[in-house]
Design goal:
heterodimer; A: alpha/beta; Rossmann fold; 8 helices; B: 15 helices; about 0% strand
Chain lengths: ~250, ~325
């Protein structure tokens, strides 16, 4: 397997607070990494560094062997790193396809004008929803959608560009059991397409269901980074709470 | 399985055209305005006269032009209380520069420039400094009106130099029997309806109003869009200011006083949601029309003008109340 993303010695300080301390890990292409840890363990900070929201105080990120330096989220996006936010970052008042294309709307030339190409956006968004096996209609307002459909919209966004790495921040936190199964299917589907998925979650069963590797953060330190098959929910719980020091 | 899924995705909303139209607040407001006009034509012999209709359409055009700008601001999740002050600032800039001998187009540029400057300052303070739009534009309301007083020294201007007649024609005249302010309103309305629906900018304005943090995360240029929204609102006020000078034939510094409230009322009656993310150009125009029809009908029916506020105020609450009831019903 080819290595996709490597973090080396990532540290982040906010004044006197050390949010992350010398975190090093790597993920291969077509692999799902479950990133776990208690509140305040540094998961969100790490995700924000990978997504280009923060720059690390020390350390480096390399993607496909190339060293990256992200100043803005757009830089990370251009490099092929997409993120699905915890609160899904959707506009309820817009349609599903408008949400998928938000910030990178397709346009066509009509005479001297550049107008939005709704037809192409609707069609492409419909294709993406079909790929995700989600019954989501591109023309419907997001306001009227179920939790699973909203997830599909948020995830379809990442498929628009040929993403290499998809970060998912608590994608199963606020949805029903059936919808959780749908989202996990989507994650497997992304993995099968060779996309690297980093799944940040509190829900142990979800992480064990889909991840190939597990990384555990505690108080800004990486305390475990191992194949999921070599670990167990009990061990991870111990690592998160600090009952077990490292593994 | 996949064919049924794709079929399901392909379907658009099941609602028919009629049920979609009927679910819009602006439809009912439009109906109310139409009904009021019909009733007035029947029970008074003064309403449906050419002279009165000319007055009604011209009077409402000023409010409607600014209401289009206000709807844009409201759709982006903000509010602009400084439009009345922008009107008088633009009018004074227009009047004072023409009085001192500048041609009409130079004066027009100065007037629009003054208004745009107001919008720029509003926009920068709101988008880049992060202050609430209510506070910034409230301060600007006071500041810009004061600037108008300073510029004019609170003197009435009624001599407009070499292009005097042209200005009066521009604001008070008509072409093919249609008052010029109405023509400006229609052109602006058509352009902005198109812009709202078919441009990236329009999409971004509604996205910001819907969920600003989502817009930021997805890379929408939120700050620049917000600045442009406030500049556009000020621009509409500037245009209305110039037209009003031409219509009135004079500039007094109480021009546009409390106009922001009428404009906001028009936008809200027309379906703009103060929480952001909703509003249409057509709604703004219809809202302005309804307010003017109410005003006009009270005068024609000989009811004291003191009642105007009561009627318009009730209508704001009824219009939004209807919308609220409809929403609650559709949630069940």
């Amino acid at each position: 397997m080819v290595e996709r993303l490597r973090l080396t010695g990532i540290s982040k300080h906010f004044g006197a607070i050390h949010a992350l301390n010398e975190v090093s890990l790597s993920v291969n292409e077509g692999e799902v990494l479950g990133l776990m840890g208690d509140n305040g363990a540094g998961k969100s900070t790490l995700v924000k560094i990978i997504a280009g929201n923060f720059r690390p105080s020390r350390g480096g990120i390399s993607l496909d062997g190339e060293l990256c330096d992200f100043h803005r989220p757009k830089d990370a996006q251009n490099a092929g790193i997409e993120i699905v936010y915890q609160d899904l970052a959707l506009c309820d008042n817009l349609t599903a396809s408008s949400n998928v294309y938000l910030g990178r709307e397709l346009r066509q030339r009509v005479g001297p004008l550049q107008v939005l190409d709704y037809k192409r956006m609707h069609r492409r968004a419909g294709e993406l929803f079909a790929q995700l096996k989600s019954e989501t209609r591109p023309r419907d307002l997001v306001r009227k959608m179920s939790g699973g459909q909203r997830q599909a919209v948020a995830i379809a966004r990442t498929l628009l560009s040929d993403a290499k790495v998809v970060l998912m921040d608590e994608p199963t936190a606020a949805i029903s059991v059936r919808q959780v199964a749908e989202v996990l299917d989507v994650i497997r589907h992304l993995r099968d397409r060779g996309i690297t998925v980093i799944l940040i979650s509190h829900r142990m069963p979800d992480v064990f269901a889909v991840s190939d590797r597990i990384a555990v953060l505690r108080r800004g330190e990486l305390v475990a980074h191992k194949p999921t098959v070599d670990s167990s929910p009990e061990e991870v719980t111990g690592l998160i709470t600090g009952a077990i020091h490292t593994a | 399985m996949t064919t049924t899924l794709e079929h399901a995705i392909d379907q658009s909303q099941h609602h028919s055209f009629l049920s979609r139209v009927m679910s819009l607040q602006v439809f009912w407001v439009f109906l109310a305005a139409l009904l009021a006009c019909l009733t007035l034509s029947l029970i008074t012999d003064t309403f449906a006269t050419e002279r009165n209709l000319f007055n009604v359409t011209r009077n409402f055009a000023f409010v409607a032009i600014i209401a289009i700008g206000m709807t844009t601001v409201i759709a982006s999740g903000g509010i602009d209380l400084s439009v009345g002050a922008s009107v008088v600032l633009s009018a004074v800039a227009m009047g004072a520069s023409m009085e001192s001998g500048y041609p009409i187009w130079v004066a027009g540029l100065l007037a629009i420039g003054a208004a745009l400057l107001v919008g720029l300052v509003n926009g920068v303070l709101i988008a880049f400094v992060g202050m609430p739009s209510f506070v910034v534009t409230l301060g600007m309301l006071s500041f810009a009106r004061s600037m108008a007083l300073v510029l004019s020294n609170n003197k009435m201007i009624y001599q407009f130099g070499p292009d005097h007649d042209l200005l009066l024609w521009l604001g008070g005249g008509s072409t093919f029997g249609i008052p010029h302010p109405l023509i400006v309103m229609v052109i602006l309305g058509i352009i902005m309806s198109f812009v709202f629906k078919w441009t990236r900018w329009g999409q971004h304005v509604f996205a910001i109003g819907g969920n600003e943090s989502a817009a930021i995360l997805t890379g929408v240029p939120v700050r620049m869009t917000k600045v442009s929204v406030y500049m556009f609102s000020a621009f509409t006020a500037g245009v209305a200011g110039i037209l009003m000078v031409g219509w009135l034939g004079s500039v007094t510094t109480n021009l546009g006083t409390a106009m922001e409230l009428t404009v906001i009322a028009a936008a809200v009656i027309g379906g703009a949601n103060l929480a952001g993310g909703e509003g249409t150009v057509f709604g703004a125009v219809v809202g302005a029309l309804l307010i003017e029809v109410i005003r006009n009908s009270l005068i024609l029916l000989g009811i004291s003008t003191f009642w105007q506020g009561a009627f318009i105020g009730s209508f704001i609450i009824i219009a939004v109340g209807f919308d609220r009831i409809r929403r609650l019903r559709s949630q069940d």
